[in-house]
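Protocol step 4 of 6: record predicted structures for both targets in the notebook before any analysis. Target 1:
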Amino acid sequence: MENLTTIMYVFLGLDVLSIGIMFLLKNLGSNKLVFNAIGLYMFVLCVLLFSVVPSSNIVFKLISAALFVPGVIAFVMKDKDFGKARILMTITMILSTVGLFMVR
């Protein structure tokens, strides 16, 4: 359980770094490679949340599965409206990280 706590704090640090890059360093955050890397990190975070939630808690399992939807929408929207995609991706990352801390 201690390893999971360490991983969650690493993810929290990566969240802060990703959000900082997307909002404070807009030139770097709008780079396609950097945005795709942050999107991949977001999907890893959603998969980790989905796999950590126990199967007995059906409601929380459905909520964690529903977090994939805004992630996919944000990833698809990046070319049309980068601002909205950035905000949607940030919300998905924050909710996934909060969910990890709640499951612990």
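Target 2:
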Amino acid sequence: MSHMKTADTHWIDVDDSKSAECTYKTLSKPSEIRLVKLHPLKIEDGPREDRADTLGPLYVELIHTDLEEATDFTGISYIWCSSNRQHTVLTATNKVLYVTENVRNILKILRPEALDEPSYLWIDQLCINQED
């Protein structure tokens, strides 16, 4: 049984001339972590093999969970390459979150098929507050 709650993360509405910034809610105890809940493709996206490389929006949620009680998740190890966060993913509440190209590509590859369950990931760029 998993004990998770949606992170009380505050997202600023995006203006075309600015990048979206998020303020992470502080983790409440040393054993608490953030996970990315990656939502599946939509049926209208079609089968994976028929899709163009440029997919529809990626939908994610940042959730807080106790590491000892966490649902199964995949930890992602990758090279940041550029710190330029020019690619977007959408939160479940339709706010924009900017990520690097490598993180966007990881999310595109790992996104579950339509009608599948969401997948849970730990990606440092999203799960660690990079500002503190």
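Step 5 preliminary note on target 2. The mean pLDDT is 74. The first strand starts at residue 4 and ends at 6.
Proceed to step 6 after PI sign-off.
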